[in-house]
C-alpha cells in the first residue's frame, strides 16, 4: 500500500514525524508537506502562481518533500507525482480539529483533497501544543485508530481526534450545534487597533459527537462526506412542486 502523508503544521512538525513513522507499519510512505505552517488554511489551493516541490532530508528512511503551498496543494501534487496512491494521512495536527473547527482546518482539507481524487483520506489531530512533543504516549493509539479505520473499506473520509489520555475508541458525529470562533480586540505597541481570531471552549456538547467523545477520553473517529447538500431540504422543495425554479 502506498501512503502519502501530509499536514498543515509544516514538514518540520513533530506530529508529521509521528504519523509517518506509524504509517510505515501499513505500507510504503512518502511525505509531501508545506514548507511552513499552513494551519487554518482550509481547503485553499494555490492558483495565482506556480508551486515548487523540493526533496528534504528530514527523516533518515522516509522520502520527504516540501512544497511552497497549501495542504491541499501538497496532496494534489503528491498524488500527481507518485503513481497510484492508496491512502492519504494528514497530521498529526498540533491541536484538535473538532466540531465546527473542521471548516477552517488545513489538516482535514488535505484528507478531503485525497477524497476528491478518489483516494481514501484520514485526518488526525491531537490536543498537543508543545512543539517538542514526542507523541510517545499516543503511539499505540495512533496504530489502533489506523487499524480500526483501515479494517473496513468505508468511510472514504475520516476525522480522527485524540484526547490527552485515550482509554477507548468511538465512532462519532461532528458537533455542529455551537461555534467556538471568537474575535478578540487588542492594540499594537503603537496603540493601533488589531484583532485576534481565537476559540473559546464549548460547554455541554451533544452526546455521541466528536467533542463529547474526546472529553470522555475516547479517540474520536468521525466519518465525513464531501456532499454538503441538505438532502432533506431538497426533498421538501420537490414536494412543494418547485422542481423547475424560475
Ligand atoms: Mn495545524
Structural description of this entry:
The protein has 246 residues and is α/β, with parallel strands linked by helices. The chain has one domain (2-176, 203-239): 3-Layer(aba) Sandwich (Stationary-phase Survival Protein Sure Homolog, Chain: A). The chain is built from 6 helices and 11 strands. It has a 9-stranded mixed β-sheet with strand order 3-4-2-1-5-6-7-11-8, sandwiched between helices. Strands 9-10 form a two-stranded antiparallel sheet. Helix 1 (14-23) links the parallel strand 1 and strand 2 (28-34). Helix 2 (71-81) runs parallel beside helix 3 (106-116). The radius of gyration is 19 Å and the shape is globular. The model has no long low-confidence stretch (mean pLDDT 95). It binds manganese (II) ion (MN). The site of manganese (II) ion has 7 residues, from strand 5.
List the helices and strands and how they pair.
Elements: E1 2-6, H1 14-23, E2 28-34, E3 53-55, E4 63-67, H2 71-81, E5 87-94, H3 106-116, E6 120-126, H4 139-150, E7 157-161, E8 168-171, E9 181-187, E10 193-199, H5 210-215, E11 218-224, H6 231-239
Parallel strand pairs: 1-2, 1-5, 2-4, 5-6, 6-7, 8-11
Antiparallel strand pairs: 3-4, 7-11, 9-10
